[in-house]
Amino acid sequence: MHKVPVRLALACALTLGFGSLALAGENWIGTWKLNAAKSKYSPGPAPKSGTVKFERVDGGIKVSSDGVNGEGKPTHFEYVSKFDGTEVPWTGNPDADTASAKRIDDNSYENVWKKGGKVTLDTKVAVAKDGKTLHIMQTGVDGQGRKVSNSALYEKQ
Questions:
Q1: What are the pLDDT tens digits along the chain (157 aa)?
Q2: Where are the strands (E) in 83-132, listed by range?
Q3: 47, 70 in Cβ contact below 8 A?
Q4: What is d(CA 118, CA 142) in angstroms, rounded to the nearest whole number?
Q5: CB-CB contact of 101 with 89 (8 Å)
Q6: pTM
Q7: Which CATH number fits domain 26-156: 2.30.42.10, 2.60.40.3140, 1.20.1250.20, 2.40.128.20?
Q8: Residue 29: other Cβ atoms inside 10 A
């Protein structure tokens, strides 16, 4: 039987423990439902409904969004990110084909959306201190070239 030096065992335990703590702090993990009455979309029309789900998966956090857009058509977008600012592919989003989410702290992150290599939207996401609401603020230009200023409020499910 091999003996592992105490310092090495302690270093491994601390490394694994701190790695878990880093993932534990993302308070946006979970499922969030759009409160359309408390949200503002410019230009419109605003989505009729929406749900955003953040879940831990191999490779990071999977972000998926399902809903009904302002024209009444179903939507589905998703990507997987480590929330370290690395650009990742984003499927289903008419305003972006990549996302580069970057964790700011336990309750917030920024996300730069790009389409065809060009920045479209700058998104800031923040969870309220009580953990019950998620606020998504977007500025920039959508996939159709229109100026965007959105403020969407989501409630924890």
A1: 444 443 433 333 333 333 333 444 799 999 999 999 999 999 999 999 999 999 999 999 999 999 999 999 999 999 999 999 999 999 999 999 999 999 999 999 999 999 999 999 999 999 999 999 999 999 999 988 999 999 999 999 9
A2: 88-89, 98-105, 108-115, 118-127
A3: yes
A4: 11
A5: no
A6: 0.83
A7: 2.40.128.20
A8: 14
